[in-house]
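Lab meeting minutes (informal)
Scribe: AK
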Amino acid sequence: MFGVWRLLAKAFVVERLRSDSEANRTPKSKRPEPKRRGHVESRPTFSRLSRDFISMARESEEPFQSDADGLNEFSILGYQETRRKFIKQVAGTSAAIAIGPSLLSSAPVDQADSTSAAGASTDSVNVHLKINGKGYALDVDPRVTLLDALRERLQLTGSKKGCDHGQCGACTVLVNGRRINSCLTLAVMHEGDEITTIEGLARGDELHPMQAAFIDQDGFQCGYCTPGQICSAVACVQEGHANNDNEIREWMSGNICRCGAYPNILAAIKEAKTKTA
């Protein structure tokens, strides 16, 4: 790229020399009067130099001749060229320099992708999960979270992916009766565990008391956080942490409802507790 700019600078210098030589051949009678004392000539600005350089490309296609400093013709690689052709060559060279490396590196990137895909398939681990009373055998990457295994591999999409950082509680499921954030645990860590999702709470067409209470008390609005809220509420009651309003609020604080339906959620948990007691 540095060589390209050197060629551009050379073209500009040659043009200036040509202009100076033409000015020297101009008769004195046609030359402008000398500037008055005290007149300060303005320095050429970048925009002015740019306009001068662009005007070079708009001139005629004929090669120029200059006798200044022995420069009889402007040639590139031994061939006589016009300024317009020179600029076209520079533009083509610049495009080749910019695009060439990406074209050359495209093949290695594709090869690396195929290699990584093959490596990922050979690194998969067989895991047996027991979800909602059913057994599942999966070949998963060791890095797959329980949430992704449920949603992407088993199509159990009731557990939602909210923040994916364990902060919102939308992915809450029950593992051996204990509520956890499924986005923060790996699927391979739960070999043989009893996993219950929102899909496994109901008994056929009969809703779980907590599900029915959420409907009766209108404990949801958009419904995105509701599966996690219900699973967490079921565990909250089973753990014995639903004795009063403040205790329920404290033990349900890990589940966020962005719609602000907290009073209705509190009422639903209290109602469900009375039905399960």
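Next up, CB showed the second protein from the same session:
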Amino acid sequence: MRSRVSTGKDVIKTSKRTPAPSSQGIAFDASSPLPEGKDKQALVRSMFDSIAPRYDLVNFLMTFGLDAPWRRRTIELLRLSPASMVVDLGCGTGDLARSLRRGGNGAVGIDLSFGMLSAARAGGAPLVQADAVALPFRSAAMDAAVSGFAVRNFADLPAVLNELARVLRPGATLALLEVGEPQNALLRFGHRIWFTRVVPLLGAALSDAAAYRYLPRSVAYLPSFPEFVRLLNNAGFDEVTHHGFSGSIAQCVTATRSADRKEP
């Protein structure tokens, strides 16, 4: 059992992959339309390659350090048995994967951005550059899946959810951490000012201006909770639950892989 935690070799089809070349030179400004499909994928990949060196610093500052307890709570919601194997989808610099390893579980980090993987400190977890719609795992190989602030960056969310359902065993838990919108009117007003005006300035000063102009606008990609329920049900998940963190500044959607899922 422990060999699963230490290497992940029994769940990964192949871990020897040639790093895909990084996209460069993609701009995004206030008047740019939000891209879709392959254009979105190329933009997101280029931006995360660009912001990787200071990603953790800017994340800490823009959330006042709250991103750390949000991630811890997300892992708690997985309700993991000891030595579970978890896929961290859109793993970025490896915060969730590292925490999973510290908790005695196995983790494999997946990200499209080679820049983010290069900057990752994943606590020894295997890291793989891959597209979320074609995960390098055998079917039903994983005990759980987690993702931190990546849902809005997937170019084809229904296909990603279907792929997660394929690699998760029946009964496995999925936890998707994302940004949210506070229900309290005063908190919502302050949050919007911070997120849409201050965060882009902070990102421009410390990292990449285009990436942090994109960040607030990318919230438009997030489905409403009823739409999330529909997408997850269609992919083969049930028991879909919404969890608000810190007054719903952040949110986590959890679901269980259905035992009677039919292959699409």
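CB comment: Residues 1-25 have pLDDT under 50 and may be disordered.
No objections, moving on.
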